[in-house]
Amino acid sequence: MRPELRFPRSTVFLMSVILAAVVLAISKATSIELEYGGTIETVWPGLPWFLATMVALVFLAVTIVWGILFAMRRTGMHRLANLQSWHEQR
Fold it and tell me: 23 with 58, same domain?
């Protein structure tokens, strides 16, 4: 591997500027909301259910894909069963 960077060094600076702009925009929007819109409701109470649902969906998707690969005999488990060690090849 080459030790060179794959992107210009100015990228880190520009990403920091963009992050600061996003944080400033969020701060400004929050102050405007408080001034004109009333209270801010958070999404924190629903976050655990959302995360649990996402983990369950990912687990379900992985299980389905693995089941399809297992049915097609492409998981690697079937290839390991046919593997001959160096001692057996002599």
Answer: no
